[in-house]
Amino acid sequence: MDFIFNSTWNLTIFLSFIAYLVGSIPSSVWVGKTFYGLDVRDFGSGNAGATNTFRVLGKPAGTVVLLMDILKGYFAARLAYVVVNQFPDLYDNYDLVNVKLLFGFMAVFGHLLPIFAGFRGGKGVATLGGLIIALNVNVALIALGIFLVTLFVTRFVSVSSMLAGISIPVLFVSVFGRNLHEYRQPTAVVFTIAIAVLVVYTHRKNIKRLIDGNETKAKLLPRHRRIDD
Fold first, then answer.
1. Where are the domains of the chain?
2. Does residue 128 contact residue 195 with C-beta atoms inside 8 Å?
3. Strands, E assignment, 77-173
4. Contact indicator for 101, 117 with CB cutoff of 8 Å
5. 207, burial (CB in 10 Å: exposed 0-12, middle 13-18, buried 19+)
6. Which of 62, 145, 166, 224 has the most neighbouring CB atoms within 10 Å?
7. pLDDT per residue as tens digits for the range 96-153
8. Residue 202: CB partners within 8 Å, gap ≥ 6?
C-alpha cells in the first residue's frame, strides 16, 4: 500500500474509487430487503432513493435511508482531508475544494450507478446534499430552503430537487463567490454546473411526467379522519 501514499495522484485516484464505493452503498435496497423483505425498485417509481423509500416503506425507513444517503456524500467529500494530511505542503485551499468536489461527485456517481446493486441506483439528490454540507453549510441551508419552499408551493419533489440542484452553482459562484474566492476558480465552477446538470438529467422521466400531467404530488400533511358527533 505504500506506493498509493507516496504520490498525490495515486492517493487521489485510490480515494476517488473509495468515494465511488461509498456512494454505491444502496441504502434503500439494503434497508428494504433486510427489514421489510422488499426491493423498493420493484415498487412505486422504481427508484432506489429516499423519496421512493418514503413512498413504499414509510417514514421510519425513508428517514434512515435519507440520512444514510446524505452521509455518503458528506463522508466522501471529507476524504479530501486524507490527501491534505498526507501532503500538507502541496494543497492550498483551492486544491482542497477541488478534491472535495471530485470525491463528492464520485459518491453521487456511485449512488446513480451502484456496483453493489446491479448499477440500478437513485437520483443522487440526498448524496449531493451531503457533498454541499461538506463544502459550505450556508449554501446547503439555502438550497434546502429552496427545496422546502418549492415543495410547499408545488408539492412536487422532482421540481423541488431540480430547482435546489440548479441553485447550487448560482449560490457558490454569484452569491458566496464574493467572499469564498475558491468557488470562482474554473474547476469548481465546472464541477458545480456539472452537478446541477446531472440532477436535472436524472429527473428526465419526471420532467416527461410533469409535461404529461402525470407526476405524483407529495402528501405534505397527514389526512385526519373526520369524526362526527
1. 2-212
2. yes
3. none
4. no
5. middle
6. 62
7. 888 999 999 999 999 999 999 999 999 999 999 999 999 889 889 999 999 999 999 9
8. 112, 123, 124
Longest C-alpha distance within the chain, in Å? 77
* Mean pLDDT on 65-82: 96
The one-letter amino acid at 207 = I
Place of cell 443522487: 124
Q: The pTM is what?
A: 0.87
Handedness of CA 196, 29, 147, 207 (dihedral sign): positive
153 exposed, middle or buried (CB, 10 Å; 0-12, 13-18, 19+)?
A: exposed
Please answer whether residues 49 and 126 qualify as being in contact, where contact means their C-beta atoms are separated by less than 8 angstroms: yes
Nearest Cα residue to 19 out of 77, 69, 60 = 77
What is the tally of helices (H) and strands (E) in the chain? 12, 0
Q: What are phi and psi of 84, to 5 degrees?
A: -65, -40
